[in-house]
Design a protein that fits this description.
By secondary structure, the chain is α/β, with parallel strands linked by helices. Helices cover 27% and strands 31% of the residues. It is built from eight helices and twelve strands. It has helices at residues 22-27, 38-45, 59-73, 118-135, 150-158, 183-188, 202-208, 260-268; strands at 31-36, 53-56, 77-82, 97-99, 111-115, 137-142, 162-166, 192-195, 212-229, 237-255, 272-276, 281-287. The strands form two sheets. The chain has a ten-stranded mixed beta sheet, sandwiched between helices. A two-stranded antiparallel sheet has the order 9-10. The protein is elongated, with a radius of gyration of 27 Å. The two termini are 20 Å apart.
C-alpha cells in the first residue's frame, strides 16, 4: 500500500513543472483504494469493531456499509429514529419489531424505536444507551428530530461500537443552555468518518483532516523592450523586445489535504472519503 506520509525536499536542480505536479501528487496523504466492497473497505482503512462510526451524506448510499457493520458485529441491531424513518431507506434493515418509545428490556432480535417526541427521546436514549449497547449494535439517524449533545456523545463513545447517520452535521447537534456543541467538536469525537457528501460542515471537515508538505510552484514571465543606436548611423534607432520566464519553488508545510472545490468534485463523481481518526489517515474509494 502507498506510503501515506512521505515528505521530500526540493531538489537543487529540477525540470520545470506545469499544473500537473507529479511530486505533489505523490506526497499527497490520501490513499486511493479504488473500487471495494464494505468489508474490503474496513480491512484497508483499519475500521475496527470498536469506536463510533459516522456516515455523512445521503443515507441511502450508506445502507450497504451499515449492513456490513451489523454482520460483523454479530449482534442484533437497534435502530433509533423518528416516525419518518419507518418509510425511508432505513426500512430496508427489516427490523423484527418496532416500538415508539424507549424501554429498558427490549424484545428478542433486531428492532427499531421510532420516537414521536424528540425532547423525550434525548433523555431516554442517554439513560438506556449503555445497556442497549451491551446486547445490540446501535444505529441512530440524526438530524430529522433526533440530535446529540456533548453528554449523549459520551454515551455513544462508551459502547463498543455504534453507527451514526447525518445528512448534515449542524442540524444533528443539540445545544444546551449552558453549552454549545459545535460541528468541529462532534467530528473530533468520531473514530471513523465515512463521508459521501458534505455541506455546511465542509470547512470543519477540511480543518480536521491532516495537513501535508506541499511544494508550491511560482511561475513569472516578463517582457522587455529596448532601443539602440548604431555608431555608424547615429540618426537611426533600432527597437526590439524580449521575453523572460522564471520559476521558483517553496515548501508549504501546512497545506490542507483538500479544499472545498476538491471535495465537491470528488463527491460529485461518487467517491467516498474515509477518515480513520485513530491513525489520522485518509482514504478515497468507490464502494460497490
Amino acid at each position: 500500500m502507498k506510503n501515506t506520509f512521505r515528505p521530500s525536499e526540493i531538489p537543487a536542480l529540477s525540470a520545470p513543472v506545469t499544473s500537473s505536479n507529479l511530486r505533489n501528487a505523490k506526497n499527497h496523504p490520501a490513499v486511493n483504494l479504488g473500487s471495494c466492497t464494505p468489508f474490503q473497505l474496513f480491512e484497508s482503512t483499519g475500521v475496527s469493531p470498536a469506536g463510533t462510526v459516522c456516515i455523512i451524506g445521503n443515507p441511502s448510499r450508506g445502507i450497504g456499509t451499515a449492513k456490513a457493520l451489523i454482520r460483523r458485529s454479530r449482534k442484533p441491531f437497534l435502530f433509533l429514529g423518528t416516525g419518518a424513518d419507518s418509510n425511508s431507506p432505513f426500512s430496508t434493515f427489516n427490523p423484527d419489531w418496532t416500538l415508539n418509545s424507549a424501554q429498558e428490556k427490549l424484545p428478542g432480535g433486531s428492532g427499531a424505536i421510532y420516537f414521536k417526541r424528540s425532547v423525550e427521546a434525548y433523555s431516554d436514549i442517554e439513560y438506556y444507551l449503555e445497556d442497549w449497547g451491551e446486547t445490540h449494535f446501535i444505529i441512530a439517524h440524526l438530524g430529522t428530530g433526533l440530535q446529540v449533545g456533548a453528554e449523549l456523545m459520551n454515551k455513544f463513545n462508551a459502547v463498543d461500537q455504534s453507527l451514526l447517520f447525518c445528512e448534515t452535521v449542524p442540524r444533528s447537534l443539540r445545544n444546551a443552555e449552558s453549552r454549545t456543541f459545535t460541528p468541529s467538536e462532534f467530528l473530533k469525537q468520531i473514530s471513523y468518518l465515512i463521508v459521501f457528501s458534505s455541506g455546511v460542515e465542509t470547512e470543519d471537515l477540511i480543518q480536521l483532516l491532516p495537513k501535508y508538505e506541499y511544494e508550491k510552484i511560482t511561475n513569472t514571465m516578463g517582457v522587455n523592450t529596448f532601443r539602440t543606436r548604431s555608431i555608424f548611423h547615429p540618426f537611426h534607432s533600432h527597437r526590439g523586445h524580449g521575453l523572460t520566464a522564471s520559476q521558483s519553488r517553496t515548501l508549504e508545510f501546512n497545506k490542507n489535504m483538500f479544499e472545498h472545490q476538491d471535495l465537491h468534485r470528488l463527491f460529485a463523481v461518487g467517491i467516498v472519503l474515509i477518515y480513520n481518526a485513530e491513525n489520522n489517515t485518509v482514504f478515497l474509494a468507490r464502494i460497490i
